[in-house]
Amino acid sequence: MSDKPIVIDHFSDVLCVWAYAAQIRLDELRREFGPLIEINYHFIQIFGVVEKRIGEGWQDKGSYAGFGKHVLEVCEQFPHVKISAGVWQHEVPKSSANAHLFLKAVQLLEQSGEISPEPQPQWNGHSLFEATAWQLRRAFFRDNANIARLECQLALANEIGLPTDKIVDALHDGAAIAELCRDTDLCKEYGVGGSPSYVLNEGRQKLYGNVGYKVIAANVQEIINQPQQQASWC
Q1: What ranges make up the beta strands (E) of the chain?
Q2: H helices within 34-174, ranges in order?
Q3: Residues 6 or more apart from 178 whose CB is under 8 A from it?
Q4: N or C: which end of the chain has fewer CB within 10 A?
C-alpha cells in the first residue's frame, strides 16, 4: 500500500443532473476512505452552449420543456436531491462555462491559501470550494437561479463568506480562465467526454456517468490494496 493518497480526478458540468445527483457518492467516498484519497475537481463543458445542446438537440423532444421533464424523471430515482418543477424553463443559463470560471477562481483562492482548504463543520465537512460548487448546483436545480450570471455567483459567494474582490481579480486577470483551459486540456489527455467522470490510477481507470457507489469504491480499494510495482496478469 502506498503512503500517498489515491488521486481521483473528478470531472463534471454544474448543469449536469447526473453530477448533481452523484454528489452523495463523492461524500460517501470521503467518509469511507478519508485521508487515503484525494479528490481533484475539474470541469467539462457539456453545457458550454446550452442552446445547441438543448434548444437544438431536444427540438424534436419538446425543447427546454421536454428536457426539464427528462431531468425531473431522472431525479425521481434520487430522492435525496431537491429539484424545482420548473427546472430548465425559467431564465435558462446560456452556458455552464461562466459558472465553471467562477468556481475555478474560488478553487485558486483555496490552492493559494486565501481561503481554508480544510473541511468546514458548517458545510457538512466540505471545504469552502466544495460548498460553493454544491450551493451553485443547488441554486440552479432547486431554486431556478441563473447561475451563469456573475451577480448570482457573487451573491452566493457573499452568503458563504468568500472574498468576492479576490474572486473578481482572478476573473479579470486571466488566472481563472487559464485554470479552466487546463481542465479542458486534461479532458483531452484522459479522453473524458462526459459528466460526471472519475479518473483514477493516472488515467488507467475511468468511470463515467451514473456509476453505482460500490463500483467506484471497488476501483479505489483495488488501487489501495495493489502492491507497488506489481505486474498485472490480466
Answers
A1: 6-12, 37-43, 197-200, 205-208
A2: 50, 63-75, 97-111, 128-141, 150-160, 164-172
A3: none
A4: C
Over its C-alpha atoms, the chain yields an Rg (Å, rounded) of 18
Give me the sign of the Cα torsion angle 18, 60, 46, 149: negative
Q: Using 50, 70 and 90 to split pLDDT, how confident is the model at 118?
A: confident
The amino acid that residue 171 corresponds to is L
Orientation of helix 128-141 relative to helix 150-160, angle to 10°: 130
Angstrom CA distances, 43 to 97, 213, 226, stand at 9, 21, 29
C-alpha 155/C-alpha 148 separation (Å) is 12
Residues shown for the chain: 234
The predicted-structure confidence for 16-32, as pLDDT tens digits, reads as follows: 999 999 999 999 999 99
- The span from the CA of 118 to the CA of 115, in Å, is 9
Taking CA atoms, 203 is separated from 9, 10, 56, 210, in Å, by 9, 11, 33, 19
* CATH number of the domain located at residue range(s) 6-225 in this protein: 3.40.30.10
Alpha-carbon span 109 to 166, nearest angstrom? 8
